[in-house]
Specification:
This protein is α+β, with helices and mostly antiparallel strands and 257 residues long. The protein is built from ten helices and six strands. It has one domain.
C-alpha cells in the first residue's frame, strides 16, 4: 500500500480527527537536497515550536521543513541536539520539580537525538510517497484510538507490555525522539508546551510509531478487518464499536427486514 492509501484507511477506519504526521530527521545534506527538489513544502516564517510545525501537517495537510533557525523552543532544541545543556535550560524546568538539582537530573534523562541533525520535515502521511520514508509516524488522537494503535502494534511486533516514555515536558519533540532512538512505540499525554503552543486538546494523546514498524501495525489492522472489523472493543462493528456491555440483556436489537 502507498502511504496515501494507508492514510485514507486510517482516517476512515479509525475515524481520526487529524492527519497522521510523518516525521523525517535529516542527517545527510544530499537527502535534504533531494527532499527540497521533490517536495512541495513550507518553512516557518518566524521561529516556533516543533509541535507548532506539526499543526500545519496534521490540520492543514501541509509539509513543513526547518532547520534550527526555524525552531524557537529551547526544549526541542535540546531534544534535537541543537543546543547543549545550560543553566537556562535547567531553570526553565523549575516549575516541574522540587529543586534545581532534580531539574538537571530530569533534563539529562530526557530523550535526545544523536549529534549531526541538519533539519526536520513533518508532513501529512499521505503526502510523502516518493519523497521520504518516515522515521516516526505521530498521531494526535483520542484514548480509544490510541488503545487500538497500541494493541495492534503489540500484536504485530510481538511486544508486550508496551513501555511508553513519559517526561515532564517535550511530549511531541522528545516523544518522537524516544521512538526514533529506541525504535519502539510511545504514547504520552500532552505536556504544558504542546497544550498551550501546539494546540493539543485536553482529550487528545500522542502516539508515536517507529517508521520501520509502522506498516506491520497497519497490516495487523487490516488482518483484523478481514476477520471481523476495525473495532477491538466490539469485533464486527466499525470503530469504535457499540458501547454496550456484552452481558447487558436489555440493549439488543433483532434484524426485522
Amino acid at each position: 500500500m502507498t502511504y496515501k492509501e494507508i492514510q485514507e484507511l486510517l482516517m476512515k477506519e479509525m475515524r481520526l480527527y487529524h492527519y497522521p504526521v510523518a516525521v523525517k530527521y535529516f542527517f545527510d545534506q544530499a537527502e535534504v537536497d533531494a527532499f527540497k527538489e521533490k517536495a512541495d513544502f513550507h518553512v516557518p516564517l518566524k521561529p516556533m515550536t516543533f509541535c507548532q510545525w506539526e499543526i500545519a501537517a496534521r490540520m492543514k495537510g501541509q509539509t513543513v521543513y526547518s532547520d534550527v533557525e526555524g525552531l524557537g523552543c529551547g526544549n526541542a532544541k535540546y531534544a534535537f541536539a541543537w543546543k547543549e545543556l545550560d543553566e537556562g535550560e535547567i531553570k526553565g524546568h523549575s516549575k516541574y520539580v522540587v529543586d534545581m538539582e532534580q531539574a538537571e537530573k530530569f533534563v539529562l534523562s530526557k530523550p535526545r537525538i544523536k549529534e549531526g541533525l541538519i533539519g526536520i520535515a513533518v508532513a501529512p502521511l499521505g503526502s510523502i510517497d516518493g519523497i521520504f520514508e518516515p522515521d516516526v509516524v505521530h498521531f494526535y488522537c483520542d484514548n480509544m484510538q490510541a488503545y487500538h494503535f497500541a494493541v495492534d502494534y503489540a500484536a504485530a511486533t510481538d511486544t508486550h507490555p508496551l513501555r511508553p516514555n513519559i517526561t515532564m515536558n517535550s511530549s511531541a519533540c522528545a516523544g518522537c525522539v524516544f521512538t526514533y532512538n529506541e525504535q519502539e512505540f510511545n504514547m504520552v499525554p500532552a505536556c504544558s508546551g504542546s497544550y498551550n503552543a501546539g494546540k493539543t486538546e485536553r482529550g487528545e494523546i500522542n502516539v508515536m510509531i517507529p517508521g520501520t514498524k509502522f506498516k506491520k501495525m497497519v497490516q495487523r489492522l487490516m488482518d483484523r478487518m478481514e476477520i471481523a472489523s476495525s473495532a477491538i472493543t466490539k469485533p464486527g462493528d466499525g470503530f469504535p464499536g457499540q458501547d454496550v456491555c456484552k452481558n447487558c440483556p436489555l440493549i439488543i436489537f433483532k434484524k426485522e427486514k
